Predict the 3D structure of the following.
Amino acid sequence: MKKLSKILLSIVLTLSLYNVQTIHASDSNTQIEYFEDGSYCITVIEDGNTENLSDISVASASKTVSKSKKTSYYSSANVEMWYVKVTGSFTYGNGSAVCNSSSVTAASKNGDWKVSNKSSSKSGNTATASATGKRYINGTLTHTVTKSVTLTCSATGKFS
């Protein structure tokens, strides 16, 4: 009987550890997009800071936060070439969400790439940024990639 209870306890502990790992994996804020030439983009939602905490009343239950979402373009050799990042300030709660501001940061991480056409916008509960990366070899344009990154806030503060 003791042996059976030890086995059952072992199974329960194993299953509980398995569920924790599964939940952790499904909470990932990372997306990967692969291209035919072997290059790829990794997009990650980054934590920002909560703003104006002293202005939040318990009755209103609305919060203002700053979040960022970054897309990095990598070569087939796994080297980051350039990135574009949108940062937005969002207020959410009481059944709604709104984007208060949006800004773009984009830069080259490799001497062959130049970044241009940086822009950002906001609409409703969404902040968007875009930029174009251009690769030059010996002064000749060989590759052009335009990427947009969109960050959306739900009324409950879930970001996607």
